Amino acid sequence: MTITEPLIQPFPLDHQGMPTDAVVRFRHRLNDTGLFTDEALARLIDEQPRDRFDVLTMRRNPPGGERWTAGEAHGLSGAEILQAVKTGALWVSCRRAMEMHPRYRPVFERAMADYAKEVGTRVLSASASVLISGPQMGIFFHADAADTMLWHLRGTKTMLVYPATNDFITEEAMEAILLKENLSDAPYDEAMDATAERIVFQPGDAAAWPLHGPHRVLNGDSLNVSISVEYTTPTSALTNGAFYTKGWLRRRAGVDLGSSRATHPALKPLFWAASKPLRVLERNRKTLERTHPRCFDVDLTAPDCVRWRPGYGPRPLMMAAE
Prior knowledge:
Blueprint: E1 24-27, H1 38-47, E2 53-57, E3 69-72, H2 78-87, E4 91-94, H3 97-100, H4 105-119, E5 125-133, E6 138-142, E7 147-154, E8 157-161, H5 171-178, E9 197-201, E10 205-209, E11 215-219, E12 224-232, H6 234-253, H7 268-281, H8 288-291, E13 294-298, E14 306-308
Parallel strand pairs: 3-13
Antiparallel strand pairs: 1-10, 2-3, 2-4, 4-5, 5-12, 6-11, 7-10, 7-12, 8-9, 8-11, 13-14
């Protein structure tokens, strides 16, 4: 792989800068690396540690508030898993592969450097997963703790991005996400879609959106491959420090220090500093993220390549938390 041009193409003039108030759309050249062909993806799945490999299912064309169900893919090769995703109702994630796998890390580092240059910010840390999902699969309405963007590689998908305001994601819900009390989901109402910005991704498209901006995704009729990037800037680190500390104090100590979202900028460094030891205290707490059940096994001979385990089945699927 020898690519001399930037992997992130120059932003349009009206899209330059960090996505603080609006979605920023741009283009990338990651498909030119050869790392996202069927053969390369099958090899990546084979090499991905199983404790960082997620296998999920949901109904086709799922409603915006319906969550996925988790499973496992034991005894299958990467090529077999990729085939199951193409033909079944599956969605898999090679978590953190972009920054941890030795073939993908140099590409990720170059792309993030290009992105940071375009938006004019310093990236303190970055993590990215390779997402491989089947036709008509989706991601429920949710918000992420970090700054987030999507680099799309194969297929077509539509994303709806909603304003990061209390009407769409309350402070309480955002604090719960940061404290890992749920899996990043939040209450959803179909009426919210009227305010969302709709983005249709084709191969080579990318987008970033404001911190804590809720979003959901629905695939088109073919295999989809994307890179989901989470990153931290000085601004987002300070904002999340305030959310974390105030949320922790409200829940654990019964102390209400006011709105997390309206924290005065001069106080954010104090809350960020306080959040560091609090995160250490929370390190061994049991969270929903750690106890989520595995309900099926991938089976190429089963309907939708999903073999349900005893006691589980396609109805009712798990819904987003209230």
